[in-house]
Amino acid sequence: MQQAGYAIHILVYIIIGHVAIDHGYADTSSAATDELHISSFCSKGEAIYAGTWGYGLYCSDDMGRTWKSFNDGLTNLFIYSIHIHDSSFLVGTDGGGIFKYNNREKQWNTLNIGNIGNTIFAVLEINRVILVSSWTHGLYRSENNGKTWDKVTEGMTDSVIYSLCHSSKYLYAGGAKNGVYQSRDRGKSWKLIGLKKKTITCLYPVNNDIWCGTWESGLYYFNEIDSIWYKSSFNFVENIDALAYSQKSNILFCANKNDGVFKSDDNDTSWYSIGLTQYK
Q1: What span, in angstroms and rounded, lies between the C-alpha atoms of 239 and 226?
Q2: Which residues contact 169 (CB under 8 A, 6 or more apart)?
Q3: DSSP H helices in the chain
């Protein structure tokens, strides 16, 4: 994916086997009737959520064997990002803005984003602050559940942010052209902390580290204790599209849209391919 012609889509395009869909239910053990292209992953407790390109959101309570649609009230089914933290559950879409899940009503409702733009690459909510990355308008911040929004510019040299995450201490943003930023004031201001002039496709917090996938530069992690960047031992591919971590099993996953999923279960000492390559 060349930077000059960077398509809007940074999608994982991992296929959950051949998935049969029937009345909002998806069973990965069934015969092939559709292929779900996965754009984002997130987990909460024992539940796994998968955002898809054109089929909305799916949820699995049995480690991915079966899936149920989770789309009541979701009027745009092209999902770019998922964010879950405590009781907050948000999804960013391509052309439909942001949806927030209402636990009382058991359905999705649109979140007011004003004139920010409707293509949302990343969304994050923590400590009553919502951060939104829009394709056309950059990074915005709200402290009142989306009633009003402020454009974030201090310390930010990237006009497009592809990824947002938070650790127990700070917020992080991955830029389309100029590396990784850190905020220590709940997203009001930002400081470039490394990987300058690299395209950051995904960020994921793991214990004291912030793992970072890039396009054409491989996998890195930033240690918050010593504030140093390290290059991962992962050397299968240089293009990383997605990251995930299983705290219970201490397994780190990374994915590439053409080469599938890889895992490390020994703290980055070694990596293995576990398949799920894209069907042609």
Answers
A1: 26
A2: 184, 224
A3: none
The residues facing 207 across adjacent strands are none
CA angle, corner 166, sides to 132 and 255, nearest 5? 85
* Beta carbons within 10 angstroms of residue 241's beta carbon: 22
DSSP alpha helix (H) spans, 217-273: none
Ranges assigned E (strand) in 53-160: 57-60, 66-69, 79-85, 88-93, 98-102, 107-111, 120-126, 129-134, 138-142, 150-151
CA distance 238 to 43: 26
Task: Name the DSSP letter for residue 176.
Answer: S
Residues constituting the chain = 280
Are 256 and 239 within 8 A, CB to CB? yes
- C-beta neighbour count of 7 within 10 angstroms: 8
**Amino acid at the residue 2:** Q
Name the nearest CA neighbour of 268 among 233, 225, 224: 233
Sheet with strand 66-69: strands edge to edge: 14-15, 37-44, 47-52, 57-60, 66-69, 25-27, 20-22
The Cα 98–Cα 74 span in angstroms is 10
- pLDDT tens for 142-169 read 999 888 999 999 999 999 999 999 999 9
What is each CA distance from 21 to 29, 70, 73, 97, 107, in whole angstroms?
A: 11, 13, 19, 26, 20
**Which H or E element spans position 60?**
strand 57-60
Per residue in 222-252, pLDDT (tens digit) is 999 999 999 999 999 999 888 888 777 788 8
In 3D, which of 201, 165, 207 has the Cα closest to residue 182?
A: 165
